[in-house]
């Protein structure tokens, strides 16, 4: 099709106005989670499971984490 604006290599020839970082905020589930009532059923340190749910701006922070007291899997109840 001639004149449709896209090359055959799969790349768009026009600029996208949305910043990928802004898309993360727009589609974040963090705002839907009741973080006060999150439960981790097999956490080593009590209440540490609540700390790993954080807003987009803090997604790269790794100082807060949760470890399982049994195996590699974590069991969460996320309201």
Written account of the structure:
This is PITH domain-containing protein 1. Belongs to the PITHD1 family. It comes from Caerostris extrusa. One of its GO terms (cellular component) is cytoplasm. There is one protein chain. With 79 residues, the protein is mostly loops. The mean pLDDT is 82. A two-stranded antiparallel ribbon has the order 1-2. The chain has one helix and two strands, in the order H-E-E. The chain is 9% helix and 5% strand.
Main features:
79 residues; little secondary structure; two-stranded antiparallel sheet; 5% strand; elongated
| Mean pLDDT metric | 82
Identify the quaternary structure here.
single chain
Strand order of the largest sheet: 1-2
Structural class: little secondary structure
Short overview:
The chain has 79 residues and is mostly loops. Helices cover 9% and strands 5% of the residues.
Strand and helix layout:
Blueprint: H1 20-26, E1 39-40, E2 76-77
Antiparallel strand pairs: 1-2
